[in-house]
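Researcher: Here's the sequence for the chain we discussed earlier.
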Amino acid sequence: MYLAIREMRFAKVRYSLIAAIMLLVAFLVLFVTGLAQGLAYDNASSIQNMKATHFIMEKESNQRLTRSQVGERVREKASAIAGEENAQPLGVKQTTVTADGTARKLDVAVLAVNPKSWLMPAVTEGIAIDSQSRGQAVVDDRLKASGIGIGTAIADQASGLKWTVSGFVSDESFSHSPAIFVSERDWLLLQGKTVPSRLEGSEAASTSYNAIAVKADKAKVRQLEAALPPGAEVVAKSAAVSAIPGYKEEQGSLLMMIVFLFVISAFVLMVFFYVITVQKSSQFGILKAIGMRTASLAGSVTLQVLLLSAGSLMISVLLVRAMEELLPSGMPFQLPAATLLLTCGAFMAMSLMGSLLSVWKVARIDALDAIGRTG
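Model: Thanks. This is the structure I predict for it:
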């Protein structure tokens, strides 16, 4: 440890430059990770926030909530097995609305839930709706930026139905659109206006939910799978989230960027420390000749990598937190403590991997050859 710190103090400029590069890479890794988390949450927060473990959907819907249509028969089966309280109908529809008095169009996601059930998020401002509410809705508070407040009437472009905003909820969106929660009664009215005529008389037209959200353990899920009609299937919550349009593609691209940044950071460290080790071969040889063990020298190199990585990470975390405060409120960015710790741990692990080549070089230095070169 003494050798590692003394050397870093002696060659301040060299190690400061390495630390600066690591700081920039670490900052980029953390920022892109926060952006990926924020986009994922913005895309699916309404579904992620639900306490459901599974969703029952139409088998031919490719696990997409907006494509699925399930009927009362499926709901009754689910209630009989999971319990009426643990099987709640869910309606999801993306549409365009206009606020009363304005011509500006807004893309939103209409979600129909039982207001008394566990699917309904907590109202942060105003009053909640109830199961018999008609023409009322609680909306995501991001719509405030569009001039929507309590008492504002919003009209659905497709159906012509109007809802008056009675309250706000926070962090509720679907497919990057702010969520609007309406009662089952309003949902059935909306479905009556928008279900295609070709489905009239079918089960989808008469019942018209997109899914049944259930809370069930593995045994109940197996019972549900055995009892459901052939056209329905049980989908895990994570699969339902991944099937939201654009979710997998968006996250896949960002994950690839993060992986490449980790690899680049390990490669940069590997090259820098390998070059430094080669330049110091003679010194390492002399130290070996006077009795210093190879393990101690390898430990010195590893400690330098750890110190530089830890220092760069600490400053990067502070910079990312400062940047988070400066970002516009509408920009999706989330870096919770668990993700931050996981990312920092992965960065440290990749940094240590980058030092392995230098450790290998130190182990192969021959003391006599090194002394001969200095003679």
